[in-house]
Design goal:
The longest helix is centred in the middle third of the chain and has 18 residues, at 93-110. It contains 8 helices and 12 strands. The protein folds into 2 domains: 5-143 and 232-259, Rossmann fold (3-Layer(aba) Sandwich), CATH 3.40.50.720; 147-228, L-2-Hydroxyisocaproate Dehydrogenase, Chain A, domain 2. A hairpin with a 2-residue loop joins strand 10 (188-189) and strand 11. It is of the alpha/beta class. It is globular and about 60 Å long.
Length: 262
């Protein structure tokens, strides 16, 4: 990743959180932040850059001119209409699809070799839109899919079982939205099927009712967070920055992402 460049489209709470997480983790050699709001994006860039004495990445740029995307290795897209309290991700589809149809070709004029990572919701639908309007190979256009949802699920399981999250193996599948589901048949804790996991007293911890509640809470996690603080941003920042590292490092990770099937 010596010459890698990550560009983030959108300097709102999600885009800025992705840039911040990538900066702290050293996800790329250079980080660029783009937004049409020049005052906002320049302020975010300065705020990030002022902390680079303490981070692996030292080169942070950005602005309202798309030339900041030049030579990007990966572009993470967060721009678009925000999800409001009570609004489903699919209700954003038409508005954000129109934005992507205009935005993606402009990005590729400055970074024709970049891998595109969609975070804007509904990310699964917009991945298809981005691939179609760009004409890029399907392997270069993807979204975070249910990567964040899987992290939420594993956190809930680990908390219930009282174990390290690293020992939990489970995944959310389907769309990043209301129809996603937990794949309980393959879920396990330290190689033990989740339905067989017991507490120190020998009692099974995960009844069908508890599993159903965990799945429901995972699907609806974003709604409760948006209701409380207006947006979900920190966890997706970490998830997206980790995905960028896997792409740039060619790490051959197997994660629940979205791409166009052929």
């Amino acid at each position: 990743m010596a010459h890698s460049k990550l560009s983030v489209i959108g300097a709102g709470s999600v885009g800025s959180s992705i840039a911040y997480a990538a900066l702290i983790r050293g996800s790329a050699r250079q980080i660029a932040l783009y937004d049409i709001d020049q005052t906002r994006v320049e302020a975010e860039v300065r705020d990030l850059a002022h902390g680079t004495q303490f981070t692996p990445t030292e080169w942070v740029t950005g602005g309202s001119d798309m030339s900041v995307l030049n030579d990007s290795s990966v572009i993470v897209i967060t721009a678009g209409a925000c999800q409001k309290p009570g609004q489903s991700r699919m209700e954003l589809a038409a508005q954000n699809a129109s934005i992507m149809a205009k935005l993606v070709p402009q990005m590729l004029e400055h970074a024709p070799d970049a891998v595109l990572v969609m975070v804007t919701n509904p990310c699964d639908v917009l991945t298809v839109v981005a691939q179609q309007v760009s004409g890029l190979p399907v392997g270069r256009v993807l979204s975070t899919g249910t990567l964040l949802d899987t992290s939420r699920l594993r956190w809930a399981i680990a908390r219930r079982a009282g174990v390290s999250l690293s020992n939990v193996h489970a995944a959310m599948m389907g769309e990043h939205g209301d129809t996603e589901f937990a794949l309980w048949s393959s879920a396990s804790i330290a190689q033990i099927p989740i339905r067989d996991w017991t507490n120190p007293a020998g009692e099974r911890v995960f009844s069908e009712q508890i599993l159903a509640q965990i799945a429901y809470d995972t699907v609806h996690a974003a709604y409760s967070i948006i209701e409380g603080k207006g947006a979900t941003n920190y966890a997706i920042g970490l998830a997206a920055s980790r995905l960028v590292e896997a792409i740039l490092g060619d790490q051959h990770k197997i994660w629940p992402l979205s791409s166009v099937l052929t």
